[in-house]
Design goal:
The protein is α/β, with parallel strands linked by helices. The chain is built from eleven helices and eight strands. The protein has a single domain, classed as 3-Layer(aba) Sandwich (Rossmann fold), CATH 3.40.50. The strands form two sheets. Strands 3-2-4-5-6-7 form a six-stranded parallel beta sheet, sandwiched between helices. A two-stranded antiparallel ribbon has the order 1-8. Helix 9 links the parallel strand 6 and strand 7. Helix 1 packs across helix 11. The longest helix has 13 residues. The chain starts with a strand and ends with a strand.
């Protein structure tokens, strides 16, 4: 008897490119089976429009674990709640089930469009790197982040931020029937720690793993993140002859 590998399906953060998963993929090693879902960078799609796109990319012939990073957490929760065939587990990384304010309150209402134009400008690239990567903002990671954000239009980023401001999938958490884990970055300056607490209130079996690192945990701390993911998946792996 051998342990069959579990396919990991990764849903990206706000940039949606999936390119920022490269450090994690490298840390997971060459034998890891990983699918990266990528969102259109020039189509301003909301959660409701992105969900069927994600569902179409889910494996149909192999068991899998779904990971939602930051922006994609609500999508991962919604999909897991519907219990798609083959789903073995759910991982949320630095994410939320409802708007993670009040830190983002300044971007609400009429200020949102102006704020997103500013955040997308060259002037804000250094502050954005510091916000997302903290002291781990190496030249290589900084370049990766800049390249990813450069692939996404301001209109798309604005639409995604508006979606974050009004999302609330807490009612779907009680429908999740697979094991779930939350990767929490202890130096996260974007999503507060209470986001995990709110999820755990509706999903009592949630395993919260706290790791030293910034919001961009999978990029800044890929080895620690990979080990946590591997430990979680190891208990889920089906046995094959």
């Amino acid at each position: 008897m051998t342990v069959a590998p579990v396919r990991l399906v990764l849903l990206p953060g706000m940039d949606g490119t999936g390119d920022l998963f490269e450090p994690l993929k490298e840390a997971m090693g060459p034998h890891a089976v990983i699918d990266v879902v990528r969102y259109p960078g020039r189509q301003a799609l909301g959660y409701g429009e992105l969900e069927p796109l994600v569902r179409a990319r889910l494996p149909t012939q192999a068991p899998f674990v779904l990971l939602g990073e930051s922006f994609s957490g609500p999508l991962a929760i919604s999909i897991a709640a519907s219990r798609p065939p083959g789903l073995l587990g759910l991982i949320l990384c630095c994410s939320f089930a409802r708007r993670p304010g009040p830190g983002l309150a300044v971007m609400r209402a009429g200020l949102l469009d102006l704020s997103m134009h500013l955040l997308h400008s060259r002037l804000m690239r250094a502050p954005m790197r510091h916000l997302l990567l903290g002291r781990s903002a190496t030249p290589h990671l900084s370049e990766m982040l800049d390249d990813s954000l450069g692939q996404v239009s301001v209109a798309v980023m604005t639409r995604r931020m508006k979606e974050v401001q009004r999302v609330d999938v807490r009612d779907k958490l009680s429908l999740v029937r697979v094991p779930a884990m939350y990767l929490q970055a202890l130096q996260d300056r974007i999503v507060p720690r209470r986001a995990a607490t709110l999820i755990q209130q509706r999903l009592s079996a949630l395993r919260v793993v706290k790791l030293e690192g910034p919001h961009g945990l999978l990029q800044a701390c890929p080895i620690a993140s990979a080990r946590a993911i591997e430990n979680f998946c190891r208990d889920l792996q089906p046995i094959s002859p």
